[in-house]
Design brief:
Elements lengths: L2 H68 L2 H24 L3 H29 L3 H90 L13 H49 L8 H32 L7 E4 H19 L2 E4 L7 E4 L1 H17 L6 E8 L3 E8 L29 H11 L3 E7 L3 E9 L6
Parallel strand pairs: 2-4
Antiparallel strand pairs: 1-3, 4-5, 5-7, 6-7
Helix pairs in contact: 1-2, 1-4, 2-3, 3-4, 4-5, 5-6, 6-9, 7-8, 8-9
């Protein structure tokens, strides 16, 4: 999947999750609106109208009684108006009935009320006929029963409507609580899913970029060996594959270079040795006496051939060390004795440079298994470098230490130091921190090759302008066949 597709997918997951939360919220709100609409448009109007009709029916009974007693036509007229209105309200109430039970209560109230209206007509006829007593008796008995029947039916309807309102409100409250809980859970889950998907994609991308960054730094320092993983098919995966191809090509070029130098060095060694020996024979007068000019030229040839031969030998040693083919003469080496002898050989060089060469006394057992000649070369290279980069009046200190399973060799100076930018490459071939001071850039690379051939390691600590400290740690014992 391409990188753009991954980013789009993460954003799409976030959008879909938010749309899901919004849809859930809208459905919940719709349910709440339905409940509230039912209460506002059906239950409450029915409740108000039923209460009003019940009160109207009771007031009609009182108006009828007053008319029968007082025979005031205004009471009759008012009774007719309210009776007509009550009949219309009962008809309206029938349309509000939302259940079968409600419809039964309304029907009972309407039937009782119609019966009551017919009874009132009968009362009026008796009254007009002069039988006032019978009219009053009919109103107080059957008339009152019918009015109470209407009121009872409507009261039952009111109670049921009130119970329905309470139930609807409780349902709305529960629905609101569940809605908020559901929306919050859905929102948290949606955000968590979105963040998780975004974090997963970001982690995949940054991990690949971090590996590329580390590998690039390793290539820059010359320590990159293994190809990096390139599992994806996106742009980062393609970049990783291209990087691996580039690194492989660089390794191939480096191996070709090393092979070239090794082959050339081997081919140069024999003729250079011959030239050096011939120069020495001429200088010693074996082929006849030389004048001063000839002697000076022969000295130049001898010195140049010696320097070239040392360079060729260094190249050969480095090539063998890098290939793991360095010949080793394993035996128990007394490092204290070996270092003492080596420093005595280097002391004239230190005196010539005006540098104090200090040998600190070793404490404990400082012997190890190794090749004495190779370890001597390590000490020579480190101490000679320290002397060369330490100005007049400075000090070079060499100490040995017993670290239990390992032995430590420390060479510390008060010289010019190594720039921080060069600390990571000082052990690489042809790398020099101070090119203006000469050298081939092979000495420290050979030191590392020799130390690693012994199973040890060498590290450097330095501050520019204050000096450097090289620490070599060697295993005390090692089995070899």
């Amino acid at each position: 999947m391409r990188l753009a597709s991954k980013i789009f997918l993460a954003l799409a997951v976030m959008v879909v999750a938010l749309i899901g939360v919004a849809s859930l919220s809208l459905r919940a709100i719709d349910r709440l609106v339905d409940v509230n609409r039912q209460i506002a448009t059906e239950t409450l109007p029915t409740l108000r109208l039923a209460t009003f009709v019940r009160d109207s029916a009771l007031s009609l009974g009182r108006l009828d009684a007053r008319y029968l007693v007082l025979r005031d036509p205004q009471y009759a007229t008012l009774w007719e108006e309210r009776a007509t209105r009550t009949a219309a309200d009962l008809e309206t109430l029938r349309g509000f009935a939302g259940s079968r039970r409600e419809a039964v209560h309304v029907a009972e109230a309407r039937a009782a009320f119609e019966e009551y209206r017919r009874l009132v007509t009968e009362q009026r006829a008796l009254l007009d006929g002069g039988d006032r007593r019978s009219a009053l008796q009919l109103a107080e008995t059957r008339g009152q029963e019918l009015i109470e029947s209407v009121a009872a039916s409507l009261e039952t309807l009111v109670q049921e409507q009130h119970a329905a309102v309470v139930k609807a409100q409780a349902s709305a409250s529960r629905l609101e609580s569940r809605t908020w809980t559901g929306v919050l859970i859905a929102l948290v889950a949606a955000l968590g899913l979105s963040l998780l998907s975004a974090a997963f994609i970001a982690h995949r991308i940054t991990r690949s970029l971090r590996e590329l960054s580390e590998a690039t730094a390793a290539v820059a320092s010359g320590s990159f060996r293994e190809p990096i993983r390139a599992p994806g098919r996106d742009e980062v995966g393609e970049l990783a594959k291209s990087f691996n191809q580039m690194a492989a090509r660089l390794r191939q070029m480096d191996e070709t270079k090393q092979e070239f130098f090794a082959r050339i060095s081997h081919e140069l060694r024999s003729p250079l040795t011959s030239v050096r020996e011939a120069a020495h024979l001429l200088r010693d007068g074996i082929a006849g006496a030389l004048n001063s000019k000839q002697g000076r030229l022969v000295d130049i040839v001898a010195q140049s051939s010696d320097r070239l031969l040392r360079l060729v030998n260094q190249l050969l040693e480095l090539s063998r060390a890098r290939a793991g083919l360095l010949p080793m003469d394993w035996r128990r080496v007394d490092l204290d004795r070996m270092v003492t002898r080596t420093l005595e050989e280097l002391r004239p060089q230190a005196v010539e440079g005006g540098v104090s060469l200090v040998r600190e006394k070793a404490a404990g057992d400082v012997t190890c298994m190794g090749d004495e000649d190779r370890l001597t070369q390590v000490v020579v290279n480190l101490v000679a470098n320290a002397i060369r980069f330490t100005p007049t009046g400075g000090t070079v200190v060499v100490r040995l230490g017993d670290l239990g399973q390992t032995v430590a060799l420390v060479v510390e100076d008060t010289g010019v130091g190594i720039p921080a930018s060069a600390l990571g490459t000082v052990f690489e071939p042809y790398q020099q921190a101070h090119r203006d001071r000469g050298g081939t850039g092979l000495g420290l690379a050979i030191v590392r090759g020799m130390v690693e051939a012994h199973g040890g390691r060498v590290v450097v600590e330095s501050e520019e302008g204050k000096g450097s400290r090289f620490t070599v740690t060697l295993p005390r014992g090692r089995d070899h066949s």
